[in-house]
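User: Let's play a game. I give you a shape written as tokens, and you guess the letters that built it. Ready? Here's round one.
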């Protein structure tokens, strides 16, 4: 019995880091239609702006417009589908870096009465190089 308990403890200690959460930061954001969210992304000597908003909710699909580093894109996100989220790579992949830091934006829920959408933002940055700062909307 003693050896079984030691073995189980060893398994727990070895595999817990593998099962841990990759995300260094998690935020929940609620936006009204056409309300823009701006986030300043800082790393090394670079400062870039990530912004997104939603414009239309129809047929259970949410149309999201986004921009990062002068690259504009549009996504249609669904709550109960594989298209629940989109990923934004925050910097170019370096030669010494295995995983590029990224933001994952996930559509969490839509409130029809309030006409607002709720998103979750996850920052994956294993080397802790990225700093996120919320910006005020003008």
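Assistant: Ready! My guess for every position:
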């Amino acid at each position: 019995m003693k050896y079984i308990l030691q073995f189980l403890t060893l398994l727990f200690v070895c595999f817990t880091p593998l099962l841990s959460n990759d995300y260094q930061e998690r935020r929940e954001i609620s936006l009204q239609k056409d309300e823009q969210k701006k986030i300043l992304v800082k790393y090394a000597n670079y400062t870039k702006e990530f912004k997104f908003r939603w414009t239309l909710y129809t047929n259970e699909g949410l149309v999201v417009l986004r921009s990062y580093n002068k690259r504009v894109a549009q996504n249609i996100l669904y709550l109960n589908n594989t298209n629940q989220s989109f990923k934004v790579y925050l910097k170019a992949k370096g030669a010494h870096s295995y995983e590029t830091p990224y933001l994952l934006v996930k559509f969490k829920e839509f409130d029809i009465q309030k006409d607002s959408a709720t998103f979750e933002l996850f920052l994956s940055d294993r080397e802790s190089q990225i700093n996120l700062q919320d910006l005020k909307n003008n």
